[in-house]
Amino acid sequence: MTRHQPEPEPQRQPEPDAGRDPAAPAGRAAPTPDPAELPGGAAVEAEGIGLKGPRGWVFREVTVEAAPGSVVALTGASGTGRTCLLLALTGRMKLTEGEARIGGLRLRKQAAAIRRTAALAHVPGVDDLEPSLTVGEHLRERVLLQRRYGTAPLAALKAALRPPRQRRADARRVHDEALAAAGLDLATLPKGPRTAVRDLERLERLRLCVALALIGRPRLIAVDDVDLKLSAPLREEAWALLASVAASGVTVLAVCGEAPAGLPGDVPLVVVVTDRATGARTAEDAPAEPAPKADNTDETEKETADALAETGRA
After folding, report:
1. Which residues contact 36 (CB under 8 A, 6 or more apart)?
2. For 55-81, what is each residue's pLDDT tens digit?
3. Residue 228 per-residue DSSP state
4. Which of 20, 88, 177, 184 is the most buried (most CB within 10 A)?
5. Do residues 108 and 289 touch, judged by C-beta distance below 8 A?
6. Which residues are CB-contacts of 190 (< 8 A; sequence separation ≥ 6)?
7. How far from chain centre, in Å, is Cα 171?
8. pLDDT in tens, 72-116
9. H or E element in which residue 308 lies
């Protein structure tokens, strides 16, 4: 009698993991793309966020919703936490409450990734220019720093392996593109690229700061005190500059004393009004008449300064 051997059971193939590249080796997930290399601007979504310092709340109950390529104007009285809100939305300050997403990244969990996508263009006390250096020296320094620290390790290695002539050409191209986007013509400066920063007009200094920020090709830039000490025509030029940057796809956060009624080219404008009593509101929720000014301006400015010192380590 012939004895039949049982047939072996077919082996089950493991199902592919969700989010894994099929071409990648088994058991290894596909690498997460560098947020700085994602195309387009960064959407800003915040709901009920707040920051508390040693002397109390700097801002609270802030809600922002802006599409990529928008200009977000943070306006309000001095001492109501406008600069702290600007730094918090760029990952430079830790939130106390609420949640926000910048370009799809969670602000409280992925602040380091957000800092790689958000650049500070002009925030006095944080990224001040060196008055004794020239415009050309600032630009060359930023290009070198971006090449060394501002790119992913693999991209930096590939760039280092390129011929020196190509590396110089790439650096020059990034340099020229940033100047063109900021509207800064070096030929119009008193001494061209050898002009010292101390000799620049306020609007020229703003353009230089924007150009330096754009060298890193960010998805979002932050600008503080856009309209400070500017005449009405210069304010229009400053807002036109930020509108042109937003039209290129980069989201802009701007602190100002008074938000414009609109921007050139139908660029989306989102106005957030900060207030000591109620945190922050959208322009639609703001009262028709300003509230009476309290006499605690010095105290609120001290709270903001303390919050900067306390949470600036982020």
Report:
1. 116, 117, 150, 151, 152, 216, 217, 218, 219
2. 889 999 999 999 999 999 999 888 889
3. T
4. 88
5. no
6. 199
7. 22
8. 999 988 888 999 999 999 999 999 999 999 999 999 999 999 999
9. helix 297-311
Quick check: 48 and 247 in contact, CB under 8 A? Answer: no
- What H or E segment, with its residue span, contains residue 224? none
DSSP one-letter code for 86: H
SS3 assignment, position 63 = strand
Q: In this predicted model, what pLDDT tens digit does every residue of 130-187 receive, in sequence order?
A: 999 999 999 999 988 887 776 655 555 666 667 777 777 877 888 899 999 999 999 9
Task: Please tell me the distance from the alpha carbon of residue 129 to that of residue 197, in angstroms, as a whole number.
Answer: 7
Instruction: List strands edge to edge, sheet with 105-106.
Output: 56-66, 44-53, 97-102, 105-106
> Which has the higher per-residue pLDDT, 53 or 254?
254
What's this model's pTM, rounded to 2 decimal places? Answer: 0.74
At residue 145, φ and ψ (nearest 5 deg) are -65, -40
What CA–CA distance (Å, rounded) separates 261 from 239?
11
The one-letter code for the residue type at 275 is: D
CA-to-CA distance for 276 and 226, rounded, in angstroms? 21
Q: What share of the chain is helix, strand, coil (3-state, %, to 5)?
A: 40, 20, 40
pLDDT in tens, 249-306: 999 999 999 999 999 988 999 999 987 544 455 544 444 444 444 444 444 444 445 5
Nearest to 273 by CA among 81, 101, 93: 81
